[in-house]
Specification:
Elements: E1 6-9, E2 16-19, H1 21-30, H2 40-51, E3 68-71, E4 78-81, H3 94-103
Antiparallel strand pairs: 1-2, 3-4
Length: 109
């Protein structure tokens, strides 16, 4: 298909921006049916807000979590964890947790 550069208006700031022929081809290749509604600057700003939990849902997990001291059951190193250890299950430091996780068989349902 033959694409030509088009000027669109950003719904966020009202400025015009170019929807290039290359961008149009990329959108078509990916199967996107809607044109971009925001200019690159506003799109980037919105993405930044989303990544920081700035939209709906309250940004679960973005607040500072209370950390609790623990001793790793694998290597004995002092560590902190985002939950209160109860003593009935082993607690691992980040390194040992990752190591055990990568060695564990995949659980597919």
């Amino acid at each position: 298909m033959n694409y030509q550069d088009r000027t669109l208006t950003c719904v966020e700031c009202g400025n015009g921006f170019t929807f290039s022929a290359d961008d149009q081809a990329y959108h078509a290749e990916k199967g996107y049916t809607n044109e971009p509604r925001r200019c690159p600057s506003c799109r980037q700003a919105r993405r930044g807000q989303r990544d920081r939990g700035g939209f709906g849902g309250g940004g679960f997990g973005q607040d500072t979590r209370e950390m609790h001291p623990a001793v790793c059951a694998e290597c004995g190193k002092d560590t902190t964890v985002p939950f209160r250890p109860r003593g009935d299950r082993p607690v691992y430091c980040n390194d040992c947790f990752r190591s055990r996780r990568s060695q564990a068989p995949s659980r597919r349902f």
